[in-house]
Design brief:
Layout: E1 3-5, H1 7-36, H2 45-69, E2 71-73, E3 86-92, E4 101-105, E5 116-118, H3 123-128, E6 136-141, E7 144-155
Parallel strand pairs: 1-2, 4-5
Antiparallel strand pairs: 3-4, 3-7, 6-7
Helix pairs in contact: 1-2
Pfam family, one: GreA_GreB_N
GO molecular function: DNA binding; RNA polymerase binding
Protein name: Transcription elongation factor GreA
Amino acid sequence: MIHKVSRNLYERLREEHADLTTRGRISAAEKIARAREHGDLKENGDYHAAKDEHGHMEGRIRQLESILENVEIVEPPADGSVGFGTIVTVLYDGDDPSMAESYLIGHIEEQCESAEVMSPTSPLGAALLGAKKDDIVTYAAPNGNLKVKIIGIQQQ
C-alpha cells in the first residue's frame, strides 16, 4: 500500500523514526536494566512497565518503517483547487456561516492545529478533490446525500 504524505509529514516521520531507533531504544534498554536491579522479575511492576513501553515503541517503529518504505510525497495543487495537503473550509447546506468547518486533506498522520484531518478517500474528501472556492459539492453520507459549499482553500 502506497502512503501519500506531504513533505512536512515525511520529514516529521523520518525524524521520529531516527529518534526512536537511536535515543528511544537506548532509553528503553536503560529503563529495563534499572528495573531488573529491583529483584524478582515476576513481581516487578517497573520491569513489566518498561517492557510494555519498549513493546509499544517497537510497534511504532515498525509502523513508521511501513509508511516510510511505501511513501509517495504529494505536493498541494498549484491551481488553488482542493487536493492533498490543502485545508478546505466548508459550509454544510442549511448551516449558519458561523458553523463552517475546516479539514486538512491528507494522511491520518498529518497534524494541523486549525483543522481536522480528512482522508482523501473518505466520501467527503473524495468529493472535494479538484473542487475550487465557491463550488458546491454533493457526496453520499449514511443518511443520504449531503451538500457542502467550499468557502475557503489554503495550503498547509
